[in-house]
Amino acid sequence: MKAVVLFSSGLDSLITLHLLRSFGIDVAALNIVTPFHDVSEAAKRRAEMYGFPCYVRQTGEEYVPLVMKPRWGYGTAVNPCIDCRIRMCRMAGELMREIGADFAATGEITGQRPNSQKQHQLLLIDRESGLSGYLLRPLSARVLPPTEVEKRGFIDREKLLGFSGRGRGHLIRLAQSFGVKEIPQPASGCLLCEKTFAPRILDTMKHIPEPTCWDFRILRFGRLLRINESLRCVIARDVKDCRNLARLFEQEDRSASVFLEPENFNGPALLMVGAAAQEHAALAG
Questions:
Q1: Using CA atoms, how far apart are residues 281 and 12, in angstroms rounded to an integer?
Q2: Helix or strand or coil: residue 281?
């Protein structure tokens, strides 16, 4: 028996990996990178630490309309959590077929996240992802309707758990029983869920009719300054931002842009983005 587990590198999905392995199931972790959330290095490190194979997959341009016009709406910021979860589960289904897995699983717990983990939302995600019946939530399975995974005897339902709500004490104790010593801190990690980041997303959607993933990725690495309707700047905050902006500028799929960095003094790098970026950079120089 083999399963693919959506793995954020967080506590819930880490426990899910351990729990399924304790049933004798061959489990593989799947971490998905979006323009707004990349914990792939932490995911690979934690998976390796406990002997789980870890696959990392990138979202492509299909992620942009998901952010621009989510079918199932936004949460409290510009976060299309349900649409995003459906997409991730579809990617889990693709990996299932690729490696011959029998079902997919997540670390979701009913009622833990109000924007995407109410019981009716979980059932919606099942249906829309194409994994209905073969998407298991082992930590909350006993408060959810039985899946085909359970009905077919892949897993004994009585061995699954019935957690709900936001408490973490019982999860930490369960993790420790599996030998987990490094307990991940709780955090969504996704910038789309951050209300302070939302204005950057809204600015991009307002001024760029057809943005690409690249247009959204650059927002993570500095302060955004809008010059005019067609020109914006991302100003690095530290050395790491400078390096990331330089890396993004080197990509072939970048939007029209100019990368500027000081030559004879210490200061931040700047990425000027827009059709007239070169002209303005020449005037500045």
A1: 48
A2: helix
pLDDT in tens, 189-232: 799 999 999 999 999 999 998 999 999 999 999 999 999 998 99
Torsion of CA 236, 237, 243, 246, to 10 degrees: 0
Question: Identity (one letter) of the amino acid at 27?
Answer: V
Burial 31-68 (b: 16+ CB within 10 A, else e): bbebbbbbbbeebbebbeeeebebbbeebeeebbebbb
DSSP 240-278: HHHHHHHHHHT-TTPPSEEEE--SSS----EEEESTTHH
Calpha distance 46→180 (Å, rounded): 10
What's the rounded Cα separation, in Å, for the pair 100 and 2?
7
- DSSP bridge partners of 270: 235, 260
Q: Give the pLDDT confidence of 122-180 residue by residue, as tens digits.
A: 999 999 999 999 999 999 999 999 999 999 999 999 999 999 988 889 999 999 999 99
Helix (H, G, I), strand (E, B) or coil at 196: coil
Assign 35 to helix, strand or coil.
coil
